[in-house]
Amino acid sequence: MSAVKDPVWLITGCSTGFGRELARLVIERGWKAVVTARDSARVADLAEGAEDRVLALGLDVTKSEQLREVVKSAEQHFGRIDVLVNNAGYGYQSSVEEADDARVRAQFDANVFGLFEMTRLVLPGMRARRRGHIINISSVAGFIGFPGSGYYAATKHAVEGFSTALAAEVAPLGLKVTSVAPGPFRTDWAGRSLQQTTTELDDYSETVGVRMAGTAQGSGQQPGDPIRAARAMIEIYEHANPPQHLVLGAWGVDQVSAHLRQTLEEIEQWREISVNTDYLAEEK
């Protein structure tokens, strides 16, 4: 099924980065949009001059009542939601051993459970119309667990698995699902938005410590362009057969491709031990 010509977009996390650039491009095209951020004042400017087709709303994706209210407002105002972009989320770095439990749980609430609930709220309308596209912003960390990002990677692995299962469930209903996995982009991820629990253990200085220092030093110098990323998301929306997985940035493509090849090689290397765990034919 081809894309809707005059789509209604609902985008979470539009105060900075991917969400803001995508919102700008969607609005510039004359499409309708619901743009959200925890502080609605930070997205109010996006609606200026286009108030008839842009709703700027406050949304903390960890708050169920706010999620329900945003979806209700979008459907009442525009009659439908054609594209959901689950973009809200943030990074947290720590060694696995030294992580702060409250911070880990808060990140799962934002990156995982908020995304899950928003998707559930939007699905009934899409399912009834037999059309819609859900774009979940994952990460290269959804494929690879880097030192210092174990819990962040766990949230993004969850998004990848969820997206794959969701795609299988809704494809027969005419709905599309794409998981977008950016590598390093010049957003606020490694700057203001990043949370860290600095490693104090010498045993992790050459793994977690080095990784965290590199993240800080590279902030603002990443090779990825958020505007080009936003254009790519619009392009896959307009494509008749969008991908289930879209990795963004040359570094990300190289890293994910190498990781998947290495994983497949390891599976094949240990194939004999793996397959010998089945019951023997005479034992069945």
CATH architecture annotation: 3-Layer(aba) Sandwich
CATH topology (fold) name: Rossmann fold
Could you name the ranges where pLDDT drops below 50 across 5 or more consecutive residues?
none
Kindly report the spatial arrangement of strands forming the biggest sheet.
3-2-1-4-6-7-9
Average pLDDT taken over every residue:
94
What value does the Rg take, in angstroms? Answer: 20 Å
Q: Helix-strand pattern, N to C? A: EHEEHEEHEHEEHHEHH
Biggest β-sheet description: 7 strands, parallel
The residue fraction in helices comes out at 40-55%
Distance between the termini: 45 Å
How many H/I helices? 8
**CATH-level-4 superfamily name:** NAD(P)-binding Rossmann-like Domain
Q: How many DSSP-defined strands?
A: 9
Q: What percent of residues are in strands?
A: 5-15%
Shape: globular
Count of all domains: 1
